[in-house]
Structure formats: structure tokens, C-alpha cells
Amino acid sequence: MLDSSPSSNTSSPGLDYYAKPGVMTDPQAHAYLFDDLPSSVAPLCKVIQGLMVHIFWAERYGTRLTAKRSSEVNIRPVARKLRRIVELDSRPLILPRPLEKKLVGNCRDFTVMLAAMLQHQGIPARARCGFGTYFRPGRYEDHWVCEYWDAAETRWKFVDAQLDEFQQNVLHTRFDPLDVPRTDFITGGSAWRICRARQADPKKFGIFRMRGMWFIRGDFIRDVAALNKMELLPWDGWGLIEKDYRRLTAAELTFLDEVAELTAGDVPEFATVRELYETDARLHVTPKITTYLRSGARKIDLARELAP
């Protein structure tokens, strides 16, 4: 297994920043739905698992999704997710929904929902985009997890809110989803770094038939954006994500190498990462992005997407 573990810290920069919601994790008018939720991670994951079903696992649970229901996976902000959740079932969030009343999402959606719930309680949390080792043997599958600051243990922990008991049994996971080892979830920056150093085969990183350095580049830049509280969909593109990988210049590759060093672990140089994201158009999410759907690519106006 690859180990991307950061050095142990007794504190971490950016805790105040991550204790507050970003534009994607702000529940807005639906904040009241979070007021009576549990205050610890384990029961919050149970709540989320009672509200959502993963689009790729739905049939294993016993339901077939219509195209309309499947399209819920394209909802970006948590506020709109919550609105759809209460449209499907208006009861308090603490009450598990029947399968046909659960919001359809994916790993990114389980992640941002947990981050939103934790931030609502003032707990530092952030989404991380990268690759999980526990879905297919010998493969690093496109995946998202939530990372939160455990004040008692003074360290960041990965939490896979998607992995309920059923999925754990199917996947034969041997770790605690509330503390995913850093050998089992590889951040985008870590994946970029180890593949550029030829310590791993980039063709083993991705999803379905989409694999290789071009795919790693996408997850890596999405992780940088997520570290800056802009958690876009796994099929959204902007900046360097949209440039043909074969046409990246030596300077651009060196730039990405440098950013990977800064973001591969628990981001001890938080201020530097923030400044890079805010000032460099190659990383910063643009007002209009491209979303790549089966029906084809189209431009999205983010301001409209994020409007209440």
C-alpha cells in the first residue's frame, strides 16, 4: 500500500476557516434542519446514510432509478440537496427514509453533506477528492471523503460517510470508515506526486475506462478547489483541467508538481495554498465551468447554480 501520511501535528492552520461553511456547504434557509442533529461523527454518518443512496449502489439495495431521479446526482450545493430531501420526505432528518425517498447522490455528495453538518456545529471539516483503494483490488478508484479535525486527538481524520454496514460487508473493508487510513484513501495531490515519481502506475487510477495522468490531474485540481471550499462535481472542469494533458507545458507540469507537494497531506502550508488558489487562474474555479455529461459537455453559470 502507498502511504501518504503527513507528519503528526499538535495543531493545524486554517481550523477557523474550515469550521465555517463555504458556498457549497452553506445550508442557507434550510439550516434549521441541522439544529437537532447529533454532535459526533458516527451518528451523523448514520443520519446521512438514512437520507441518501449512492447512484452506483442503488440496484444492490433493491431499487432501480429513473432518469429523473438519477439526475439528482447533479445537484451541487447542500442547500438545494436539503430542499430536495424535504420535498421527498418532510420529516426531520434524523428519521431514515425508505429507499424510494432517499436523495440520489455519489461519494462527493455524502462527503459535502457531512462537511456541512460538522461546519454547522463549528467543527473544522473539508472535502477531499482523490482515490480509494478499497473498491477494486489493485486499483485506485475515483472517490471523495470528508476530512475533519479531531480536537481530542489533534489530527485530521478521513471519514467515508458513504460506507454503511452493507457496503462494508460487500467490500470486505478492514478499517474503520470513521478513520480511513491514509494508505487507503490517496488525495489527488498524493496520487499526482507518486505517479509523477513513477512509484505507482497511473493507469490504475480512475474510474471505469477513464484512467491515467489526465484523470489524476482532474481529481488533483478538484481537491485543491475543495481545500478552498469550492467542492464541484466529479465531472466539472475549468482551468488546467480542461487543457489537453498531452499539451501541458514543462512549466505547467512543474507548477502542478509544486502544488501537489503543498496539498498531498494535511496542508500544513494552508496560507500558501489559499493564496495560490485565489491568485492563479489555472486553479481557481471560474464563474462559468464546463460540466461533462453523457449527453455532452455544456457550460454552467455557477452564480445561477448557487442562487437560493
Describe this structure in words.
The protein contains 12 helices and 11 strands. The longest helix has 15 residues. It has one domain. By secondary structure, the chain is of the alpha+beta class. Helix 8 packs across helix 10. The strands form 3 sheets. Strands 3, 4, 5, 6, 7 and 8 form a 6-stranded mixed sheet that branches. A 3-stranded antiparallel sheet has the order 9-10-11.
Number of helices: 12
Helix content: 25-40%
What's the helix-strand series? HHEHHHEHEEEHEHEEHEHHEEH
Largest sheet: 6 strands, mixed
Radius of gyration: 18 Å
Helices, strands, pairings?
Layout lengths: L14 H4 L22 H11 E3 L3 H4 L5 H4 L7 H11 L14 E3 L1 H14 L4 E8 L7 E11 L4 E5 L5 H7 L13 E3 H9 L8 E3 L2 E2 L1 H15 L8 E2 L12 H14 L6 H10 L8 E6 L2 E6 H5 L2
Parallel strand pairs: 1-2, 4-7
Antiparallel strand pairs: 3-4, 3-6, 4-5, 7-8, 9-10, 10-11
Helix pairs in contact: 2-6, 8-9, 8-10
Descriptive keywords:
12 helices; six-stranded mixed beta sheet; about 300 residues; three-stranded antiparallel beta sheet; alpha+beta
Concise account of the structure shown:
It contains twelve helices and eleven strands.
